[in-house]
Amino acid sequence: MPTSPKRLVNVNGQVFSEHEARISVFDRGFLFGDSIYEVTQTIEGVPFMLDDHLDRLYRSGEKIALQLPYSRDELKKELARVLKALAVEQAYVRIIITRGEGEIGLDPGLATSANLVIIAKELPPYPRHWYTEGVDVIVAHTLRNPTESIDPNVKSGNYLNNVMAFAEASRLKAFDALMLNHRGEVTEGTTSNVWIVNEQGLLKTPPLASGLLEGITRKHLLEICREQKIEVSLTPIHLEELQKAQEIFLTSSTKRLVPLRTLDGKAVGSGSPGPIWRQLSTAYDAHVQKIQAQAREQWQAVNP
Ligand SMILES: Cc1ncc(COP(=O)(O)O)c(C=O)c1O
Questions:
Q1: How far apart are CA 200 and CA 237, in angstroms?
Q2: Does the annotation mark 155 as catalytic?
Q3: CB contact burial 113-124 (16+ within 10 A = b; e otherwise)
Q4: Which ligand 1 atom is the nearest neighbour of the CA of 254?
Q5: CA 215 to ligand 1 centroid distance, Å
Q6: I need a labelling partner for 280 at 20 to 30 A (CA). Which of 116, 165, 205, 254 fits?
Q7: Which distant-in-sequence residues (6+ apart) come within 8 Å of 135 by Cβ?
Q8: What atom of ligand 1 comes closest to residue 219's alpha carbon?
């Protein structure tokens, strides 16, 4: 029987096993989803694109007036603490900051002080067939919340739209769901950004104005495209354009670039991973190797 991966949790500076880690039921993260978070991983023990993730964590905090009681260096120290205890080459890392505990009530002023929770667990490699054959994705009926509500560009603990969209995919045994906005524009996957090569061969990814999280993989891939002079259009993508795309792929920090084989049960392009996905995936992997080498030097200088 396969054993489940080891999971450790740093709660406000103390590392616990998954069975011992505790947070109050009066915590606003639990009561209202009043929290922000980031997910990344380690590669050979070194956190991946950590500064980008911490930048986004602070940005998310600012957008919902949640003040982080930790400096960037303190957060890195707490992450290092739990990673040292976990001691695995490749770990999934989730950094959560909640507004804290307090009397039950919507007023954010009721919270005492923010809680920090860092979950670290072993991250086994993803199935190879995702990348060699592609994955099956659906378009969800559940819409992404509009930017005029809590902007999807805030990575908050409030993920119920995405949870319900994923449940739609799950019922159909699909890998994931793409979500539209109230104007019928494609936004993103439930935990990933989306890219297409449209019928005319143009590479596109939805603009932030469509309502989506500004993914770190998306940001780096846009930089790669700029460097390699690959044209990318950041104009809204409607369902019809999506359905006629020659290629579609998802991007995220842990899964990188995942090509689609089918959309709503119909083959995307030839039905196998396309040439633009291949080119960008190779370029992204090379980019990761380069920046991870620098990150390793910096991380090891502080955490020998
Ligand atoms: C809703 C959503 N969109 C996009 C992404 C991809 O972002 P990143 O590339 O920073 O992992 C995520 C990742 O967690 C996400 O939750």
A1: 13
A2: yes
A3: ebbbbbbbbbbe
A4: 11
A5: 5
A6: 165
A7: 174, 175, 176, 250, 258, 259, 260, 261
A8: 9
Structure tokens of 264?
């709503």
8 Å CB contact between 214 and 153: yes
DSSP characters for 237-251? Answer: -BHHHHHT-SEEEEE
Pocket of ligand 1 (CB under 6 A): 39, 162, 188, 191-193, 213, 215-218, 251-253
113 close to 69: Cβ distance less than 8 angstroms? yes
Considering 76, 121, 155, 204, which one is annotated as catalytic?
A: 155
Kindly report, residue by residue over 221-265, the tens digit of the pLDDT. Answer: 999 999 999 999 999 999 999 999 999 999 999 999 999 999 999
Identify the band that residue 1 occupies on the pLDDT scale cut at 50, 70 and 90. very low
The pTM of this model reads 0.96
pLDDT tens sequence across 65-95: 999 999 999 999 999 999 999 999 999 999 9
Pick from 147, 191, 164, 178: nearest CA to 245: 178
Which residue's alpha carbon is nearest to atom 5 within ligand 1? 192
